[in-house]
Amino acid sequence: LSKPAIMGRLTHICATETSKPTDKDALATVTGACSGDLRKAVTVLQSTVCQAVCSTDDVRDMAGFVPQAQIDSVIDACRRGGGLTDVTAQLARQGHNMDMLCHQLVDSVDLPDDKMTALLAVVCEVDRRAHDGAEEWPQLSWLLHELAHLMRSNKRKRARHATAFSSASDVSGRSFEAADQTVTFPEGPRAATRRG
């Protein structure tokens, strides 16, 4: 279901079945945590109401969110490309929910569309393998290594673009490669040809 539909249903449940005031941010957190699954959203809502917790932080904890600071450190490790085995081992020791971890990684990482598509394909494969009985943490290790590869290749591509186009104004009569294209700057201003 869509987020507005789930949010509307949770608001209705809170208005008719609980006597406690419910924080709209907490309901939005429940909605975001459940990835379109109304049954899961209602279960998380019931758990929070039964335990008299209504803050966003408590809902995030109840729904199995990984702390955002830890997600950021995982993404930073992927960006650097080092220490991924240690990061995976630490996450395994802490017992985080694998589905929620994957969901948060995808939501938190900043990649162009083609790289994001590749990442989502890896997440789907990790999910399939986990549901087929594979151990989750070796799959997470593979996911993090793939994410690191995508982030580093994206960084190299950006660096090539910046280098190529920052020096474009002072080159004349030379060729160089930029983003899988050959750009030739013959003599004269604005006289550039591209061939791919």
Describe this structure in words.
With about 200 residues, this protein is mainly alpha-helical. Helices cover about 65% and strands about 5% of the residues. The protein has a three-stranded antiparallel sheet, with helices on one face. Helix 2 crosses helix 3, helix 2 (about 25-35) runs parallel beside helix 4 and helix 3 crosses helix 4. The longest helix is centred in the last third of the chain and has 31 residues, at about 135-165. The chain is elongated and about 50 Å long. The two termini are about 45 Å apart.
What descriptors fit this protein?
196 residues, mainly alpha, three-stranded antiparallel sheet, 3 strands, 67% helix, disordered C terminus
Quaternary state, please? single chain
Gap from first CA to last CA: 43 Å
What summary fits the major beta sheet? 3 strands, antiparallel
Going across the biggest sheet, name each strand in turn: 1-2-3
User: Radius of gyration, rounded?
Assistant: 23 Å
Label the structural class: mainly alpha
Helix content: 55-70%
Query: Can you count the beta strands?
Result: 3
* Unreliable stretches: 163-196
Average of pLDDT: 75
Strand content: 5-15%
- Which geometry do the CA atoms define? elongated
What is the count of DSSP helices, taking H or I runs of 4+ residues?
A: 9
SSE pattern, N- to C-terminal: HHHHHHHHHEEE
